[in-house]
Amino acid sequence: MTTQEILAAAVAAKSAMTGLTSKDKKEAILSMADSLMASSEEILYANRLDVKDSLGSMSEVLLDRLTLTAERISAMADSMRSVAQLADPVGQVLSETVLPNGLVVEKISVSLGVIGIIYESRPNVTSDAAVLAFKSGNVCVLRSGKEAYRTSYAIVTALRRGLTEFGLPETVINIIEDTTRSSANEMMAAKGYLDLLIPRGGKGLIRACVENAKVPCIETGTGICHIYIDGAADMEMALAIIDNAKTSRPSVCNACEVCLVDRKIAASFLPRLKAKLTEKREKAVELRLDDEAAKIIEGIPAGEEDFDTEFLDYILSISIVDGVEAAVRHISMHSTGHSEAIVTENDMAAEYFCKNVDSAAVYVNASTRFTDGGEFGLGCEVGISTQKLHARGPMGLSELTTYKYIVHGNGQIR
């Protein structure tokens, strides 16, 4: 099918969602999760083909992000089941006001309609986006990157099988067949078809959508995440947090890219950090150092772009700063508004950091790797918004709804 035909089919499927009860949606999601598990072998086969074609053209960490295993598919199904158990976000009475003239004004949560998601080589986004869209009463149109297309198509096929077994049209969940840039451009221009467009990927994809979309668009994802090690930090805690934030999965947007260190402790802390991240490891972290840090430990001199780059790799930029206020200034100049952390035992420093850092998630004594829909209790996420309207941070069910006013009267006229 052409992209235009798929968009038209998605709009036509909206009526199938309007009559679903919360129980219907829960049972359909469980059916889709079961179908996903039952289709594991065909999904893994498709994934092996995608991975094989990407060898040599994709970094090791991005290949890991593309690769599925039986365990990862099981985790995807578990995320779907978690979403099934969450409260239905549609039909909630958000507020109720009785006016002096007797009118009763209710503010009610409703679905958005048709949501488009453009994403790159993350197969798990396929099931996450589909289940969140469905639970929030929306039809979805998924556009996978070409590197993961066969895998994503196999996942959608499995989810559709679960839908049709439950008696719903398969066009409630759609995947764009054209993986060229043309289909992305068509989605950006799909006024009258898409009620919201969510890009989930690298800086280039996000910028293209934000600058060119003619439909409402959420800016998501790019994460130049900072961790500031305060002069009053517990050093063992700081080392563990940075290690986790940088190396547990470097290819994701909540991984730490920049470490800022208070000048008061730099001489004692940086050698320990270098040892932690580079010695006796299967994969050492490459350290890119500002001039002051380079006087204390060995590494690569930081270039002009190294504090403005989302590496998505085993690379960490390090800068020495004069306390928490200087750290906040650095972050305000270089952050993408995703996630930042302070490690400190000083409550006043923590309070200053939290009040003055303007990012979607701000941490005190914890890893930035927790910025995730599943970790935040949302089941999973459709993306992480780095803007302020209409959603911010991990986008779960409530972020995929809007509201309308229902006004009850008994003959009032104005």
Can you lay out the helices and strands and say which pair or pack?
Blueprint (H helix, E strand, L loop, with lengths): L2 H10 L1 H5 L3 H17 L1 H15 L5 H7 L3 H16 L7 E6 L5 E8 L2 E6 L4 H12 L3 E5 L5 H17 L7 E3 L5 H8 L7 E5 L2 H10 L12 E5 L5 H13 L8 E7 H16 L7 E4 L1 H4 L5 E2 L13 E7 L1 H12 L4 E5 L3 H10 L4 E4 L19 E2 L7 E2 L6 E8 L6
Parallel strand pairs: 3-4, 3-6, 4-5, 7-8, 7-12, 8-11, 9-10, 9-11, 12-13
Antiparallel strand pairs: 1-2, 2-16, 14-15
Taking the sheet with the most strands, its summary is: 7 strands, parallel
Count every beta strand, where a strand is a DSSP E run of 2 or more residues: 16
The helix fraction, in percent, is: 40-55%
Structural class: alpha/beta
Range of strand content: 15-25%
Radius of gyration: 23 Å
> What's the overall average pLDDT, rounded?
96
Distance between the termini: 51 Å
Strand order of the largest sheet: 10-9-11-8-7-12-13
Low confidence ranges: none
> Please, how many helices?
15
Description:
- The protein is α/β, with parallel strands linked by helices and 414 residues long.
- It contains 15 helices and 16 strands.
- The strands form four sheets. Strands 10-9-11-8-7-12-13 form a seven-stranded parallel β-sheet, sandwiched between helices.
- β9 (286-289), α13 (291-294) and β10 (300-301) form a beta-alpha-beta unit.
- The mean pLDDT is 96.
Q: What's a concise summary of this model?
A:
With 414 residues, the protein is of the alpha/beta class. The chain has helices at residues 3-12, 14-18, 22-38, 40-54, 60-66, 70-85, 124-135, 149-165, 181-188, 203-212, 235-247, 263-278, 291-294, 323-334, 347-356, and strands spanning 93-98, 104-111, 114-119, 139-143, 173-175, 196-200, 225-229, 256-262, 286-289, 300-301, 315-321, 339-343, 361-364, 384-385, 393-394, 401-408.
